[in-house]
TrEMBL record:
The keyword Transmembrane helix applies. The chain crosses the membrane at residues 26-50, 62-80, 166-182, 249-270, 276-295. Its main location: membrane. Residues 344-546 form the ABC transporter domain. Coiled coil: none annotated. One of its GO terms (cellular component) is plasma membrane. It comes from [Bacteroides] pectinophilus ATCC 43243. This is ABC transporter ATP-binding protein. InterPro entries: AAA+_ATPase, ABC1_TM_dom, ABC1_TM_sf, ABC_transporter-like_ATP-bd, ABC_transporter-like_CS, P-loop_NTPase, Type_1_exporter.
Length: 547
C-alpha cells in the first residue's frame, strides 16, 4: 500500500513532535533553560561566601552583614529557581504528552483497516499510555535534569580547582568509582524490583486460578502442589525484596563514608608540614568549610545521573516504539469528488484477508432505487462486501465503485450523506440521545434528527425522557428493539442515498422484529438498499447468493 504520510503536514516522528512543541512554546522553553542555568549559578556562591565569612571571623575581623544576607538570599534564590525549574518542566512535560497523544490519535485515524486489523489492542494502548509517559519522563526527569546535573558537577569541580587543586584531583580520581558504584546499585535494585513485581503478580494470579480450578484441584488431589507453587512465588518475592532492601541500605552509608574519607584525606594533607603537599592542599579555615560543603554537594548529582541514564534508556525504547507506530502505512486516497449516485458496481473483484481469498472474481451491480438482499452461508463474505462498499479495504484485484468513484477514494466528508449503515447491534457513543443520531456531525440538523426519529417511530419514546433529545445516554434508557430503531434513525438522519443493513433483526424477538421491519420499510422508501439476511423469506427485493 502506498505511504501517504505528511497529509495535512502531520508530524511523523517523536523528534518532529517534540521540536514542534519546543518551537510553539518558545517562551516556556526559554524559561526552563534560564531556571536551569540560574539554579546552577546561584548554588555555587553560598559556600564561597560562607568561606569568606569564616575567614573573616578567624582573622578576628567584623563580619560583613551584606555577606550574611547574600548567603541566605542566594540559598533562597537557588531553592526558588529549582522549584521554578521543576514546575516549568512539569508543564512542558504535559505539553509534550498532549502533543504526542494527539499525534498518535491523528495517525490512528489515518491507518488502513488492514493495518488496524493486525494490531494487538493492548499494544496500541501501551503506545498511547506507557510509551508516551516514558517520553514525557525524558524531559521531566531525563535529559534536562541530566544536563543540569552534569553542569553542576563541572561547575563545582571548577570552583574546587580554584580553591584547592589537590581536592579537585582527588575528586576527579574518585568520580568514576562513585559513578560505577551508583550504577551498580541502581541496576541491581531495578532488576530486584522487576523480579519482585513479577513474583507478586504471579502470586496474586495464583489465587483466582486456584479458585477457578478448585474442582479439578480437589478431584485430582493437587492441593499440595498448588500450595507449593504459591509458596514458591511468595519466596521469590521475598528474595527480591531482600535484595532491594540490601542495596537500599548500603548505598547511603557507603556514600557518607566516602564523603568522610575524602574530607579526612584532604584535611590530613592540608595539615601536613610539607610545602610541596601544601601547594596542592593548603587552605584557610574558611576555604575548608566551603570545600566540605562542595564535596557533599557533588554526591547528589552523581546519584541523580544514574537514575537519569535509566530514564533516558527506557524513554529511548518508548521513542522507538512510538516512531514505529507513526511510520505505519496510511490510507492512501486519490483526490476525488463525491459520487453522484448510489450505483454500486463490483467488477471482477478478488479480495482476501492475509492469504485467504474470500471473494474470487466476483461481479454484481445494484442500480439506483433497487432493494437487494445478500444471502449465503456463514463466512461466505457478505459483511466483507459491505466493508468493500464502505471503502474500508481496497480489492486485491478488480474494482468496487459507487457512482463511478472507487469506494476507497470517496472523501470521508461525503460518506455520511452517501452511506447509512445499520449493524446487528447498536454501538453507543458517550453523549446525549441526539449525539447518538448525529454522531457529532454538525451538518446534521436538529430537524433531520427529529425527522429520522419520527420515521422510525422512536420520537415519542425520546420525548418522554427527562431531557428529551438532550438526555444523557445510558444503557438502560431503551429496550433492545428501541436501540435498533435508534440505529436506523442514526443511519437515516443524514438522508443517505444508500442504506446498508447487516442482519439488523438477528438479535430481536418476533414482535420487535415486526416493529423494526416496518420502521425500516418507511426509511427504505426511495432509497437504494442492500441488506444481509440469512432468512431469505424475511427479506425483500432481488436476492444475490454469495459463496
Ligand atoms: N478482519 C478480518 N481479518 C481476517 N479475516 C477476516 C476478517 N473479517 C472477516 N474475516 C474472515 O473472512 C471470512 C468472511 O467473513 P464475513 O464476515 O465477510 O462473512 P459473512 O458472510 O458476513 O459471515 P456471517 O454470515 O457469519 O456474518 C470469514 O472466514 C472470516 O473469518
Amino acid at each position: 500500500m502506498t505511504n501517504n504520510i505528511n497529509q495535512n503536514n502531520k508530524s511523523n516522528s517523536v523528534a518532529e513532535i517534540i521540536l514542534y512543541t519546543i518551537k510553539s512554546r518558545l517562551l516556556l522553553s526559554f524559561a526552563i533553560v534560564s531556571a536551569v542555568v540560574m539554579a546552577i549559578v546561584t548554588s555555587l556562591f553560598p559556600p564561597l561566601i560562607l568561606g569568606g565569612i569564616i575567614d573573616a571571623m578567624t582573622a578576628g575581623q567584623a563580619v560583613n552583614w551584606g555577606m550574611i544576607l547574600a548567603y541566605f538570599g542566594l540559598i533562597v534564590l537557588t531553592g526558588l529557581m529549582e522549584a521554578a525549574r521543576e514546575a516549568l518542566l512539569t508543564v512542558f512535560g504535559q505539553k509534550i504528552t498532549h502533543a504526542l497523544r494527539s499525534g498518535l490519535m491523528d495517525k490512528f485515524t489515518r491507518l488502513t483497516a488492514d493495518c488496524l486489523n493486525k494490531q494487538e489492542p493492548g499494544a496500541v494502548v501501551s503506545r498511547f499510555v506507557g510509551d508516551v509517559d516514558t517520553v514525557e519522563a525524558l524531559f521531566t526527569s531525563g535529559i534536562i535534569s541530566m544536563f543540569a546535573d552534569v553542569c553542576r558537577i563541572i561547575s563545582i569541580l571548577a570552583v574546587i580547582w580554584f580553591r584547592n587543586k589537590g581536592l579537585a584531583i582527588v575528586i576527579v580520581v574518585l568520580l568514576p568509582f562513585l559513578f560505577w558504584f551508583t550504577r551498580h546499585v541502581q541496576k541491581n535494585m531495578l532488576s530486584a524490583q522487576i523480579a519482585n513485581r513479577r513474583a507478586v503478580s504471579r502470586a496474586s494470579g495464583h489465587v483466582p486460578e486456584t479458585l477457578h480450578n478448585i474442582r479439578t484441584v480437589h478431584t485430582l488431589g493437587r492441593e499440595k502442589y498448588m500450595e507449593q507453587r504459591y509458596d514458591e512465588y511468595i519466596s521469590e518475592g521475598y528474595r527480591a525484596m531482600e535484595k532491594t532492601n540490601f542495596y537500599d541500605a548500603i548505598y547511603s552509608p557507603v556514600i557518607l563514608i566516602l564523603n568522610a574519607v575524602v574530607i579526612a584525606v584532604v584535611m590530613l594533607f592540608s595539615a601536613s608540614g610539607s610545602p610541596v603537599v601544601l601547594t596542592l592542599f593548603g587552605m584557610s579555615a574558611g576555604t575548608a568549610v566551603a570545600v566540605m560543603n562542595y564535596i557533599s554537594q557533588i554526591f547528589s548529582p552523581v546519584e541523580s545521573l544514574g537514575m537519569e541514564i535509566q530514564t533516558i534508556q527506557s524513554a529511548l525504547a518508548g521513542v522507538k516504539r512510538i516512531d514505529e507506530f507513526l511510520a505505519q502505512d496510511e490510507f492512501a486516497k486519490q483526490d476525488t469528488k463525491a459520487p453522484d449516485g448510489p450505483v454500486v458496481r463490483f467488477d471482477n473483484v478478488t479480495f482476501g484477508y492475509d492469504d485467504k481469498n474470500i471473494l474470487n472474481d466476483f461481479s454484481f451491480e445494484v442500480r439506483t432505487g433497487e432493494q437487494v438482499t445478500l444471502s449465503g452461508r456463514t463466512g461466505a463474505g457478505k459483511s466483507t462486501i459491505f466493508k468493500l462498499i464502505l471503502g474500508l479495504y481496497r480489492p486485491d484485484r478488480g474494482s468496487v465503485t459507487i457512482g463511478g468513484v472507487n469506494s476507497a477514494d470517496i472523501p470521508d466528508k461525503a460518506k455520511r450523506r452517501l452511506f447509512g449503515y445499520v449493524e446487528q447491534s447498536f454501538h453507543m457513543v458517550p453523549g446525549t440521545v441526539k449525539d447518538q443520531i448525529t454522531l457529532f456531525d454538525e451538518s446534521v440538523t436538529m430537524d433531520e434528527v427529529k425527522k429520522a426519529a419520527e420515521l422510525t417511530g422512536l420520537d415519542d419514546a425520546i420525548m418522554s425522557l427527562p431531557d428529551g433529545y438532550d438526555t444523557k445516554c445510558t444503557a438502560d434508557i431503551f429496550s433492545q428493539g428501541q436501540w435498533q430503531l435508534l440505529s436506523i434513525a442514526r443511519a437515516a438522519a443524514a438522508q443517505p442515498k444508500l442504506l446498508l443493513l447487516d442482519e439488523i433483526t438477528a438479535n430481536l424477538d418476533a414482535d420487535t422484529e415486526k416493529t423494526v421491519l416496518s420502521a425500516l420499510k418507511r426509511v427504505s422508501e426511495n432509497r437504494t438498499v442492500i441488506s444481509i439476511s440469512h432468512r431469505v423469506n424475511a427479506s425483500a427485493g432481488r436476492i444475490i447468493t454469495i459463496g
